[in-house]
Amino acid sequence: MRKIIKIPIDEVRLSRNDILKTQGIPRGKNPSKTIEPLFNKAIELFLECSKPSGIVSEISIPEFGDVYKGEGLNEESTPLDEIFRKAEALALFAVTIGERVNQKMAQLFKENELVLGSMLDGAASVGTDKAADMVEDYYFNMLSKKGATTNSTPILRYSPGYCGWHMSGQKKLFEFLKPKDIGISLMDSYLMKPLKSISGVLVAGPKEIHKFKDSYPFCIQCKTHSCRERIRALFKESKPKT
Amino acid sequence: MDILKKISESLQLGDDVKVSVLTKEALEEKIPPKEILDNSLISSMNIIGNKYKVHEIFLPEVLLAAKAMYAGMDVLKPMFIQEGIPTIGKVVIGSVQGDLHDIGKNLVGIMLKGAGFGVIDLGNNVPPEKFVETAKQENASVIGMSALLTTTMPVMKKVVELLRKEGLRGRIRTIIGGAPVSEAFARAIGADAYGYDSANAVDVVKRLVGKSE
Prior knowledge:
The complex is a heterodimer of chains A (about 240) and B (about 210). By secondary structure, chain A is α+β, with helices and mostly antiparallel strands. Chain A has helices spanning about 15-20, 35-50, 60-70, 80-85, 100-110, 115-145, 170-175, 225-235; strands at about 1-5, 55-60, 90-95, 155-160, 185, 190-195, 195-205. Chain A contains 8 helices and 7 strands. In chain A, the strands form 2 sheets. A 5-stranded antiparallel beta sheet of chain A has the order 1-2-3-7-4, sandwiched between helices. In chain A, strands 5-6 form a two-stranded antiparallel sheet. The two termini of chain A are about 20 Å apart. The model of chain A has no long low-confidence stretch (mean pLDDT about 90). Chain B has about 210 residues and is of the alpha/beta class. The relative contact order of chain B is 0.12. Chain B starts with a helix and ends in a 5-residue tail after the last helix. The radius of gyration of chain B is 18 Å and the shape is globular. Chain B has helices at about 5-10, 15-30, 35-55, 60-75, 105-115, 130-135, 155-165, 185-190, 200-210; strands spanning about 90-95, 120, 140-145, 175, 195. The model of chain B has no long low-confidence stretch (mean pLDDT about 95). The longest helix of chain B has 21 residues, at about 35-55. In chain B, strands 2-1-3-4-5 form a 5-stranded parallel beta sheet, with helices on both faces. Chain B has 9 helices and 5 strands. Classes of the chains: A alpha+beta (about 240), B alpha/beta (about 210). At the A-B interface, α2, α5 and α6 of A face α4 and α5 of B.
């Protein structure tokens, strides 16, 4: 099944801490009094300029095997290569908040509204991530309705460009998913346009299949090791879905 | 309080309106524009840069201060009508071809301007030839390239190779940055330097042009 999902902007919940983190402000620290109104203005602009939408398309394990192989440029051994074969269900997805936010950011920088531009960029990144969470929830509910999953069967997403899955994997992913229908196109460099877009695979299956060590050769170059946080969160609590 | 000090305080607080008014006052007091620029605007931005480096302040405060600095520079600009605002060197920056990520590169540009460099920002998706052509035309001493994708990193090598081909390697230096880029990659492609963040990039560019403190 392939579905286009219109995401109501007022349901995209932005976390203040997450946005401040994009500005280098650590948890527990508050921006100065001068910055606070600009922070609020950036949220306003985000809500005004974003038009989030997503697309999700179920895919079988063998079909995904072909998408995953991509242009043959993946690292020799990757966590996802192990994970997707143990999945109970898979779906390709893409999500975007649209092009207008980028245009607004460019305009703000041009007008020397630097703090607003930077804050809007942070809000847009966080917002795109939240929109991807909502697509994840949508897929979970889709599977639940079919009786194909339970709360103990979480869904995690993986994207080309991370954890050894080469960026060029976008090509086959786009051929299968056709996210042009929600306004996302792919550049020759495999960068998505609009810039604030996320694509990848949603993996449904027992949480244990997502557990891996960050000791792959390519993990050395990774500057975030955000996989640790994702895995930890998975084992801390099963995400309650509605 | 002396007016240059007042400008400095207002700039550090990010008050662009006040900086603009005080800069006009300083000119009325016959303080040479170059002195206002060096001893007030740029020196205050250096203080801001140093506070940022030690996490005493964060990015939004730096950006507010930068906006205030631009407000002061706008007042001074007509005073340098013939030769333009004096700089400690010119840097051409851009995100390489195939890459549309702008923010990191913008921050580097803002910090470089704050340190007294002239910055020519080519935007994003910049072809290798454009970097080299512009650097030649503008008589820039440094090219700064940003890439956020592993697939666009090779463009950086093309720029270095173009410079080599045209015999400009020693005259125009290169600095690279961006999430997937590293010191080792810079060495591998023959770039002169790598900057791990915007504040570090300023230090590195200063070193490249021999203006380190």
